[in-house]
Amino acid sequence: MGVEGIGARVVRKEDKRFITGKGRYVDDIKLQGMTHAHFIRSPHAHAKVKKIDSSAALKMPGVVAVLTGQEIVDDKVGNLICGWAITSKDGSPMKMGAWPAMAPETVRFVGQAVAVVIADSKNLARDAAEAVVVDYEELPAVADIHAAIKGGAPQLHPEAPGNQVYDWVIGDEGATDAAFAKAANVVKLDVTNNRLAPNAMEPRAAIADYDAAEEHFTLYTTSQNPHVARLVLSAFYNIAPEHKLRVIAPDVGGGFGSKIFIYPEEMVALWASKKVGRPVKWTGDRTEAFLTDAHGRDHVTHAEMAFDANNKITGLKVKTYANFGAYMSLFSSSVPTYLYATLLSGQYNIPAIHAEVVGVYTNTTPVDAYRGAGRPEASYLIERLMETAARQLKVDPAQLRRTNFITQFPHQTPVIMAYDTGDFNASLDAAMKAIDYAGFAARKAKAKADGKLRGIGVSCYIEACGIAPSKAVGSLGAGVGLWESAEVRVNPVGTIEILTGSHSHGQGHETTFCQLVAERLGVPISQVSIVHGDTDKVQFGMGTYGSRSAAVGLTAILKAMEKMESKAKKIAAHALEASEGDIVIENGEFKVAGTDKAIAFPMVALAAYTAHNLPDGMEPGLKESAFYDPSNFTFPAGAYICELEVDPGTGKTSFVNFVAADDFGRLINPMIVEGQVHGGLAQGIGQALLEHAIYDANGQPVTASFMDYSMPRADDLPSFNLSHTTTLCPGNPLGIKGCGEAGAIGASAAVINAITDAIGKNNLEMPATPDRVWRTIHAA
Amino acid sequence: MSTVKLTVNGKAVAVDVEDRTLLVQLLRDHLNLTGTHVGCDTSQCGACVVHVDGRAVKSCTMLAGQADGASVTTIEGIAKGDELHPMQAAFRDNHGLQCGYCTPGMIMSAIDIVHRHGGELDEPTVRHELEGNICRCTGYHNIVKAVLDAAGRMKVSQAAE
Predict the structure, then answer these.
(1) What 3-state class would DSSP assign to A496?
(2) Backbone phi, then psi, for A700, in 5-degree steps?
(3) Does the complex come out with an ipTM higher than 0.85?
(4) Helix A770-778 to helix A742-759 angle, to the nearest 10 degrees?
(5) Are A575 and A523 part of one and the same domain?
(6) Are residues A547 and A507 in the same domain?
(7) How far is B60 from chain A (nearest CA, A)?
(8) Domain check: are A637 and A621 in the same one?
(9) For residue A296, what are the CA distances in angstroms to A258, A401, A453?
């Protein structure tokens, strides 16, 4: 490892602009003649749009246009799509209602746009929006999963009777029933996985700029995947063919999944910019983020686990109801199916699993992938079940896990996933040692003497990342391939540009991706720049989500680097009059192995471009590209243990220690990996203790600002105690598994297991607020 | 419309604004100082923190007119040329930022915290004082480290002056 190579804790190259206020986010961009959009959004969860009167608004100063849902439908802008087809157990395709970018007839959640005001300034657009009169006829609404599937419930879409999108199954029901029939013990658990709002700190924003002469659009947008945005806007929404649409995602202030999707606001901005003949900018405010960014989680589950007399798991049955909100968002259908139920084996050898997932429409904001996406729900369920089982079977929770750990790899689970490698005992050992698990009983006794209830909670998670092998996901219904692409451009002076389809919105790619180049060529990272986030610059890309940028995106860069190096070696060998096979790359030089003959990398680059003395038949230039499609998912895994105290008088939880032992395979930059874990843990702990996107029975959101929705703050969280164990991923040449989501996947169960251990009662829903904990302690 | 006269990052400026203009709008929209961000509109997240007459203020919660005659410092104004402010350097060195959106407000709040506590800071105090700044990326772990690190650096640089 060089000082800037793989494994080095390199300080981030991108930081200088962020710490000096020179980051360039979408809202920082101003275009000549730019107008501002303000959306008129439904205050009702379910209503008919009877009439929109914009006559007064149109007379106000600075108002350019008021455009409605009917107009966007009339102009044949496509309805929003869901890109993953799921088939119900009866063989029928999932049942989807139409989702126009602005509602022409019916609104189905609070915040759905019905019209947009375009004006010379943001304030003028807001003022004019106040003067637009929308006549709604309210309809009965339903927000709760159980209420939505009851007979007589208000119906959202005629296409989906009973508000049911699909009823999907996975696994072997007969084998699972047989396992339960023979079980020595059965453990049952009901779990609600609370709905969350992603809340990236930068609100979504878009600027659309139409060039009438070229019939060309440019869209600046807060996207995790600008090429996917261009593809969808072009192929499905009829905005413009791909070569007439440039999508730029500049600095993006966090995503966590919520900026994967192509939202109505981008579609409307593009369409409106052509209609008004000026650039159109929209920047959401925080309440719009709560109302319109796709939410996460929101499952209700009943699960049963069968054990034999030796405490070995013999079967698992799961029934989950997943709330999709009012419309099917871009990847929503895959989240509670192929990203959730395929992880239900956890870290355990479970011979038979059967899971049924019912997708449900409600009059709430659409739900889609949020950090972890399905895997936190699976991990939470399994780890709560294991804890419940340990309590019921009266065995140590860590020991019960060890009894059931998968120890032989590869391991084919009964739910599609084939785990390639791992060492679950090693990460549990590391976590138990870090928290002094053996000394816990004494600490608990001491805390009791001080009037505090101390608890410890284990969570052993596994996730499927490196999303994803295209052929596999294609066979499961995905509408796209999930490979990644990269290009390596060596300039004649030997500096290097890496163009990547991955997108960094906090992950530090501008540093870690350079570290691979430094490792291979021995050049300083200051000689390398990373280009991303612009469809006119980067050849293509599937973007960043599912902890895929290192495992898939960086591997694509490696493949392109290998091609470039192969050509460079030929040039070097020719110049040094040596055999290509004898050339080695060291410290920025191409050397003839075992000799002192060498040529510096910039001279190789220059030779490639002067083309004065290249091997016969070789094309000039030094630029290569690659597309990399992974052969399997990757399987990051680890053990988290939380120790905390509960004040029985107030129900307040205080952390004593939180340890995380993760196996991410090879680490490129441990400093950045740790940062990813810290952030993930905060979101997992936030779900466990604080966060809940709440609707009343009529579908009115009651948590639509930071005044109402409890975001984790610095004094809600502890410092974390991290360590790593390593099994290299055999599925990619760098041995990388991915680290972006682990914290959010593993943390919630550790916290709830610890609180329920502390209070001696097993049933406690998230978020475990002091009020809820106090009531649970004192319930009869 | 009114003319607001103030000093921003050491330069005197006079800006004609609508009376309802917020200080953050004056900075971002009129002076193109886009390092100051808006994250919540309800004075909760702290992405918009600047210094007004040396004190940390949420610029989304102050009218531009209220800053008439004041001296305002933004994230763009704390480095001395190429020399970073110790708090900026500490955020970089401790990986106290990821997406960078909350970072300017964090840094401006953190400088104020160190000033108010005279460098006598510990982890619980930093966590308590950062209550008005929300970060979704870092879990605050490295932000807390950065603030404690910078408190030491600022003490040293003050002693040197």
Answers:
(1) strand
(2) -85, 125
(3) yes
(4) 30
(5) yes
(6) yes
(7) 12
(8) no
(9) 9, 28, 32
CATH number at residue A714: 3.30.365.10
Instruction: Give the 3-state secondary structure of residue A241.
Output: coil
Q: What is the DSSP string of A156-220?
A: S-TTSGGGEEEEEEEE-HHHHHHHHHT-SEEEEEEEEE--B----SSPPEEEEEEETTTTEEEEE
Of A628, A647, A682, the residue that ends a domain is A628
Contact A256 B136 (CB under 8 A): yes
Q: Please name the residue that has the structure tokens 């991410």.
A: A664
Is A694 within a domain? Answer: yes
- Examine the domain organization and report whether A566 and A530 are in the same domain: yes
Domain range for A569 is: 15-20+483-628
Mean pLDDT score of chain A: 97
Return the structure tokens found at A54. Answer: 């914009």
A to B CB pairs, distance under 8 Å: 179
Q: Which pLDDT value is given to residue A245?
A: 98
Do A621 and A686 lie in one domain? The reply is no
Pick from A551, A750, A753, A758: nearest CA to A638: A750
Total residue count of chain B as it appears in this document: 161
Contact yes or no for A17 and B135 at CB 8 A: no
The pLDDT tens digits of the residues spanning A142-178 come to 999 999 999 999 999 999 999 999 999 999 999 999 9
Flag if B18 and A123 touch (Cβ within 8 Å).
Answer: yes
CA dist B70 and A156 (Å) reads 55
pLDDT band at B118 (very low <50, low <70, confident <90, very high): confident
Indicate the residue of B40, B75, B137 with minimum beta-carbon distance to A286: B40
Number of neighbours of residue A525 by Cβ within 10 angstroms: 24
* Phi, psi of A115, rounded to the nearest 5 degrees: -160, 170
Whether residue A679 and residue B136 make contact (CB cut-off 8 A), yes or no, is yes
Residue of A nearest to B74 (CA): A21
Number of domains forming the structure of chain A:
2
Let me know whether A611 and A680 are in one domain: no
Q: Which residue of chain B comes nearest to A22, CA vs CA?
A: B35
Mark whether A623 and A488 lie in a shared domain.
yes
**In Å, how far is A65's CA from the nearest CA of chain B?**
23
Q: How far is A218 from chain B (nearest CA, A)?
A: 22
Inspect the interface and report whether the beta carbons of B137 and A19 lie closer than 8 Å. Answer: no
- DSSP 8-state symbol, A413: -
| pTM beyond cutoff 0.90 | yes
pLDDT tens profile A718-744: 999 999 999 999 999 999 999 999 999
Question: Tens digit of pLDDT for each residue in A478-489?
Answer: 988 999 999 999
Neighbouring C-beta atoms of residue A666, cutoff 10 Å: 16
Whether A101 and A77 have beta carbons less than 8 Å apart is answered as: yes
Digit-coded pLDDT (tens) for A57-100: 999 999 999 999 999 999 999 999 999 999 999 999 999 999 99
Evaluate if residue B155 carries a pLDDT over 90.
Answer: no
Residues of chain A contacting residue B138, judged by C-beta atoms under 8 Å apart: 675, 678-679, 682
Nearest-by-CA chain A residue for B123: A719
Residue B158 phi/psi, 5° resolution?
A: -65, -40
Question: Which among A419, A417, A413 is positioned nearest to A351, based on CA atoms?
Answer: A413
Counting residues of chain A whose pLDDT is more than 90, the rounded percentage is 99
Whether chain A has a CB inside 8 Å of the CB on B123: the answer is yes
Cβ contact (<8 Å) for A123 and B88?
no
Task: Look at residues A595, A628, A661 and tell me which one is the last residue of a structural domain.
Answer: A628
Q: Is some CB atom of chain A closer than 8 A to the CB atom of B34?
A: yes
**Given pLDDT bands bounded at 50, 70 and 90, which one contains residue B55?**
very high
pLDDT of B161 above 70: no
Nearest residue on chain B to A715, judged by CA atoms? B127
**Which residue ranges of chain A lie beneath pLDDT 50?**
none
Is B137 in the A-facing interface, judged by CB distances under 8 Å? yes
Please report the pLDDT score of residue A693 as a whole number: 98
